Amino acid sequence: AQSVAQPEDQVNVAEGNPLTVKCTYSVSGNPYLFWYVQYPNRGLQFLLKYITGDNLVKGSYGFEAEFNKSQTSFHLKKPSALVSDSALYFCAVRDGGSNYKLTFGKGTLLTVNP
Amino acid sequence: NAGVTQTPKFQVLKTGQSMTLQCAQDMNHNSMYWYRQDPGMGLRLIYYSASEGTTDKGEVPNGYNVSRLNKREFSLRLESAAPSQTSVYFCASNIHFSQGWEKLFFGSGTQLSVL
Q1: Closest by Cα among B41, B25, B8 to B104
Q2: Mutation test of the interface with chain B: which of A50, A88, A101, choosing the one with the most B Cβ atoms within 10 A?
Q3: In terms of CA atoms, which chain A residue is nearest residue B57?
């Protein structure tokens, strides 16, 4: 079975400060990891993914994520937060050898204060 | 650039009523999905269709049925709605890349209340 944990329901940061949204995962094989973002009253949008290669992956809107195999983590980061980054962020995982069913975390609400 | 289109956007049902949520994608994707989103629960997969003519159960299929009408359309039916089915429902399709991964594209959701 595969699972994802997002330990923080909510993260608050000031505009211009760095932000981190945490994610840990459990999967039996090689992990395929994803971050999706949901803006109010919208469906989810793809941000970035890790499947292999460099542990630091870059995605849309200046976001990046760091894959750490030993800690089974895939934290989302951004060096300088914008108010417009305020949204609900979901981490997702699947076993790289399995079919295409993703398991999503519960989501973390990011609020960036002006 | 319609992407994934869901109808209706809002619906209120009484317990025991039935309804069908419609979903269509214009991106020629093979796979389509139905998720429900509940506070504190994240997204949970109800049913998916890996290709036209096939459907499979996800995590929470009880109380739902699906139909993959053609490559574009994937509908979700509630035969006898229950208050526990009050949720936001998302349809999605995905594109598979040659490197072996996929990207999901989501509709804007259907907010369903069952009284």
Answers
A1: B25
A2: A101
A3: A101
Half-sphere exposure of A12 (CA within 13 A, CB side): 2
Q: Which residue from B minimizes the CA distance to A51?
A: B101
Q: Using a CB–CB cutoff of 8 Å, tell me whether A102 touches chain B.
A: yes
Among partner residues B94, B99, B105, which is closest to A100 by beta-carbon distance?
A: B94
Q: Does B96 touch chain A (CB under 8 A)?
A: yes
pLDDT surpassing 80 at residue A13: yes
Considering only the beta carbons, identify the residue of B40, B42, B45 that sits closest to A90: B42
Q: Tell me if A65 sits within 8 A of A81, measured CB to CB.
A: no
Q: Which of residues 30-69 of A touch B (CB under 8 A)?
A: 32, 36, 41-46, 49, 51
- Which pLDDT tens digits describe chain B residue by residue (115 residues)? 679 999 999 999 999 999 999 999 999 999 999 999 998 888 999 999 988 989 999 999 999 999 998 999 999 999 999 999 999 999 999 988 877 788 999 999 999 999 9
pLDDT digits (tens, 9 = 90+) for A62-93: 999 999 999 999 999 999 999 999 999 999 99
Average pLDDT, chain A: 93
- Mean pLDDT in residue range A98-107: 82
Residue matched to tokens 């460099």: A54
CA-based torsion, A93, A99, A100, A103: positive or negative: negative
